[in-house]
Each structure stands twice: as structure tokens, then as C-alpha cells.
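ugh ok fine here u go
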Amino acid sequence: MAYKLQLLDSVTIHPVFHVSLLKKKVGNREVLSTLPSLPVESPLQPQAILERRMIKRNHQAATQMLVHWASLKPSEATWEFANDLVHRFPQFDLETRSI
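structure:
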């Protein structure tokens, strides 16, 4: 079961979400009507690898890396699969942790 959400025209994500990704609203806290914007002129580029971890993915071991993205704060780092990083950013050296 999935729901199609009415999102702002400026949002660039797909509007259909599986019910497991949605949460019931609790309380009367106001929700922001605008999303933070990323710089359009420069797409995100990895700046450094902060951590590494092994997880189970499709019944196999997979490496994830905590990526500090250029133009974002280290607190906004995201976990990415190493294989995906190699395909998306071939110039990025995962061993030396920098471009």
C-alpha cells in the first residue's frame, strides 16, 4: 500500500511513499512549509570519509561510509554504500578519504 502526497512544486523527490515510511502526526507542533535548499550551481561532492562500518545487505556483508559532503556541515554527513560512491564519484579515492 502506498500514498501519493501533495508536495510543493519545488520539491524534487518522488511523491509516492510506501506506508512503512510514513508516520502518524502526534501533537500540535507546527510543520515547516519550506524545505532547506541545496546550492543548485554545485551538486554535492564528497569531501571526506568520517567513518566506515560493515552492515548486512541482501544477506551479504556491505561497507558503508559516513560521507562529509563539500558545502555541508559535518553534522549533515550521510551513510552511503561504498559501491555506490565508487560508481557516482570515480575520482574520489576511498582509501585516502579525499579527492
